[in-house]
Amino acid sequence: MNRSVVAPLAALLLSSFAALPAAAQEGPVSTEPIPSLTVSADGEVRSAPDEATVRLGVSVQTKTAQEAQDQVNRIAAAVLDAVGKLGVPAAHIQTSELNLGPVYGQGRPGGELQEPQIVGYQASNVVSIQIVELDKIGPVIDAGLGAGANRLEGVTFGLRNDRPARTAALRQAVEEARAKAETLAAGLQVRLVRILEVTEGGIAVTPQPFFKSRSMAMESAMADTPVAAGQVGVSGSVTIRWEIAPL
């Protein structure tokens, strides 16, 4: 072998062996699990709503499908016009859940079974109105019913900007989780060292619903409709894992 090659190779091997004791002194990496404590907590705040959604229904039954559809469209247009006159922006009014289908008659009582017969057609529509001036809720309902709507599907209250409430709910959940962890640690006679993991369990906004029966809805066309707003609930949850150590 060429001596010019052997000398550098020998030097490389010697340097490698010289590094072995130092590497051996470092020892193996520990795979022991970190002692930990995991807790979950919820937080909830309630806020006064600043918007509402009113859902007014229109339903008619006639002999022909076209007639039923025409009547529903005409009444829905009248409802839209009546609500618009109260100052509700057109962008806050929309129609949805348009349905049209046959109505089947019943067989003769005590008679033989017969094939169902179509006796008419039913068409329905729902007008959804978003209201940011809550004192207009009652007048909007009354105007819609007065224009021909025959169903009050419900009123739901909500928040246009729920970010502050979400933040407050999460902060409350974190504080509750820490309080739980400290209580458990004291009972177990350990101490909390550091947070290892935080998982947000999600945030839920629970609108406050308000409903009236169909008969009450029809009566309200003759009088002002009082509506109580209540409050909107916003909740959040977190799961936090702490490293623990003996006292």
Can you give the mean pLDDT? 83
**Fraction of residues in helices?**
25-40%
CATH class of the domain at 51-105 and 116-158: Alpha Beta
Second-tier CATH architecture of the domain at 51-105 and 116-158: 2-Layer Sandwich
Kindly report the spatial arrangement of strands forming the biggest sheet.
3-4-2-5-7
- The count of DSSP E runs of length 2 or more, i.e. the number of strands, is 8
Main β sheet profile: 5 strands, antiparallel
Task: Look up the CATH topology of the domain at 51-105 and 116-158.
Answer: Alpha-Beta Plaits
Label the overall shape.
elongated
* Secondary structure category: alpha+beta
Order of helices and strands: HEEHEEHEHEEHE
Folded structure, characterized:
Among the domains are: 36-46 and 164-203 and 237-246; 51-105 and 116-158, 2-Layer Sandwich (Alpha-Beta Plaits). The strands form 2 sheets. It has a 5-stranded antiparallel beta sheet with strand order 3-4-2-5-7. Strands 1-8-6 form a 3-stranded antiparallel beta sheet, with helices on one face. By secondary structure, the protein is of the alpha+beta class. Helix 2 (65-84) runs antiparallel to helix 3. The protein is built from 5 helices and 8 strands; from the N terminus they run αββαββαβαββαβ.
